[in-house]
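Tokens for chain A. Residues wanted.
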């Protein structure tokens, strides 16, 4: 989220950043909103000052025996009091209008991010491993899983609908083994502290990491108990409240299933001032994640690539501004190490301005080779967000050699998506007879099992 003062002082830079994302200039409109906010605040302050002054003048007039003057002043105070609610409402509206506009603006890309319109303009920066040469036609992961009788989409659909799966036996254990391996790697070798966070979060947590309000339709909302009697329909986002049908719900009565552990992990530092000695703060969590995939109709309808519920190991770092870019390289390297130890070929790309996420300043994607599809697919995305999320959360730190607190910088990345890692293992380690070899690094987590089925 932006500081309107910065936009006022750097309007050209702000609009140039928007242009790189393919967006129209917005500084003029935002500054007009800010002017209206300033005017509303000023009018309320002047009314309050005049009320206070008039109240004192009433006492002076009465002391001087000037009854007419005192009555005129009382009438003036009464008029100010009568107009006060309208002035307060004008101030609230002006502030909310500006805040809503600022909340919907994406982060500005770093200068080094390549310009581009979409994923076709992303730039490959590295490649690791050689794709395996098969002496048979490799299958896609869902063909392998269904062939083993251990991956069941049909039953999952009966229970929960489309984009869910039931994994059983060796595949369920493989999923668990992948997550345990990743968490052990990141905590034992990469200096992350493991966290077990809530999977349900409130509105302000989702706002802090920028899932709300812009991406509300991509989330799963949850309300305690039944919806209000006689009301139905979607929950809609407002400046200060949520509504269900025509009945207002108090702010905070709604919960959201996390789309990624980035949300609770990053919000652990919201509304706080850390000591610089506490930074960098590195956290990891293995959690289920939930996404409505509202914009993914017709995409990856078969298999586990795009599910409403999936398991992911997340990495989050909280740093100083001076260290955030170096931390971004480090975090991406931690995710790469997962794929290297699993011996999965992958490539590293930097996302262009037209494909990067809303809160990101710069993003690396790691794309793993899937022989069943014959192409690379994203398995990890690592982003540096600068102070964009910190401003939304009011997360700051106190520099050791400075008096005033500064906003922290936040980073997040997949370390990696467990479901997609399982997809990659199934496709890269498949055998001609339909079985799947277990990667060497996972065998201790599989009780020594070397092949599925054993």
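Reply:
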């Amino acid at each position: 989220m932006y500081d309107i003062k910065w936009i006022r002082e750097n309007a050209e830079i702000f609009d140039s950043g928007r242009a790189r994302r393919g967006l129209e200039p917005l500084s003029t409109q935002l500054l007009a909103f800010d002017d209206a906010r300033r005017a509303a605040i000023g009018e309320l302050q002047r009314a309050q000052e005049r009320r206070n002054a008039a109240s004192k003048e009433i006492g002076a007039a009465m002391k001087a025996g000037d009854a007419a003057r005192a009555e005129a002043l009382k009438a003036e105070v009464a008029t100010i009091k009568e107009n006060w609610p309208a002035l307060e409402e004008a101030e609230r509206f002006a502030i909310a209008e500006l805040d809503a506009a600022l909340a919907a603006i994406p982060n500005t890309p770093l200068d080094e991010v390549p310009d581009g319109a979409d994923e076709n303009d992303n730039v490959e920066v590295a490649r690791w491993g050689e794709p395996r040469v098969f002496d048979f036609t490799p299958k896609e992961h869902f063909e392998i899983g269904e062939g083993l009788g251990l991956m069941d989409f049909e039953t999952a659909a009966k229970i929960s609908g489309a984009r869910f799966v039931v994994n059983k036996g060796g595949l369920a254990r493989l999923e668990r083994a992948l997550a345990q391996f990743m968490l052990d790697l990141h905590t034992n070798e990469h200096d992350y502290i493991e966290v077990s966070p809530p999977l349900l979060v409130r509105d302000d947590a989702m706002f802090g990491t920028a899932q709300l309000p812009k991406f509300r339709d991509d989330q799963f909302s949850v309300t305690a108990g039944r919806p209000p009697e006689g009301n139905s329909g979607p929950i809609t986002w407002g400046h200060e409240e949520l509504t269900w049908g025509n009945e207002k719900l108090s702010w905070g009565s709604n919960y959201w299933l996390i789309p990624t552990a980035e949300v609770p992990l990053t919000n652990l530092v919201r509304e706080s001032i850390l000591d610089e000695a506490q930074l960098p703060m590195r956290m990891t969590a293995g959690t289920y994640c939930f996404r409505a995939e509202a914009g993914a109709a017709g995409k990856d309808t078969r298999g586990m690539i795009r599910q409403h519920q999936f398991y992911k190991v997340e990495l989050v770092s909280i740093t100083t501004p001076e260290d955030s870019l170096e931390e971004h390289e480090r975090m991406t390297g931690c995710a790469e190490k997962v794929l290297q130890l699993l011996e999965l070929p992958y490539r590293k790309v930097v996302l262009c301005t037209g494909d990067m996420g809303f809160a990101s300043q710069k993003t690396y994607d790691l794309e793993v080779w899937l022989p069943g599809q014959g192409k690379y697919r994203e398995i990890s995305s690592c982003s540096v967000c600068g102070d964009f999320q910190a401003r939304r959360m009011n997360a700051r730190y106190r520099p050791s050699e400075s008096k005033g607190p500064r906003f922290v910088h936040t980073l997040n990345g997949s370390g990696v998506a467990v479901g997609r890692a399982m997809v990659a293992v199934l496709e890269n380690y498949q055998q001609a007879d339909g079985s799947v070899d277990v990667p060497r690094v996972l065998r201790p987590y599989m009780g020594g099992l070397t092949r599925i089925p054993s």
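Residues 27-63 form the longest helix (37 residues). The chain has twelve helices and 21 strands.
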